[in-house]
Amino acid sequence: MIPINNSNVLKQLSFRLIVFSLFVILVSAACGKGSGGSGGGGVTPPPPPTPTEDAIVFTYDIDPGSNIYAALGTTQEVKITVTSKMPTAGVITDIVVKKDSDGSTVSSSTLAASTMVPINGMITNLATNVVCTATITVKSATTATNTSTKTFKIARK
After folding, report:
1. Percentages (nearest 5) of helix, strand, coil residues in the chain
2. Which CATH number fits domain 58-156: 3.30.300, 1.10.3470, 2.60.40, 3.40.50?
3. CB under 8 Å to 156, separation ≥6 — which residues?
């Protein structure tokens, strides 16, 4: 039998344990740094929020009060003024007029995107003593959900 020197074995085990521990520490530190690169790692900041448009608010120059607006002819001009902050791409305006009696469309027009006010629209094909409902819808040219709608009664005298 060969005599074993316990102190040499303990020294070798201690040295191996120290080397192994250092290796584990170095590997752990390297894995925890995240991606390298020139940015130095870390979290990318979120992009700035997209600015939102003000809700569309508008008025029109026809004032039927609580009654039916009496047009003097087969056509009636209507001036629409956007009173809220105008969207940068402007607004698209729809004017639809339907007979109250059967819901059929008397006139319909879509005005191209505009950033200028007032917006001049035209109601056409009004018949004598036929009560209609005019619906004006103003919508943002860029944000489909930003719309505002108003209605009023109109008839030719």
Report:
1. 15, 35, 45
2. 2.60.40
3. 70, 71, 72, 73, 74, 126, 127, 128, 129, 130
In 3D, which of 68, 73, 69 has the Cα closest to residue 124? 73
The model scores a pTM over 0.85? no
Q: Pairing mode, if any, of strands 119-123 and 76-82?
A: antiparallel
Residue-wise pLDDT for 24-38, tens only, equals 777 777 776 555 555
- Enumerate the β-bridge partners of residue 78: 121
Q: 3-state DSSP call for residue 80?
A: strand
Residue-wise pLDDT tens digits, 54-84: 999 999 999 888 799 999 999 999 999 999 9
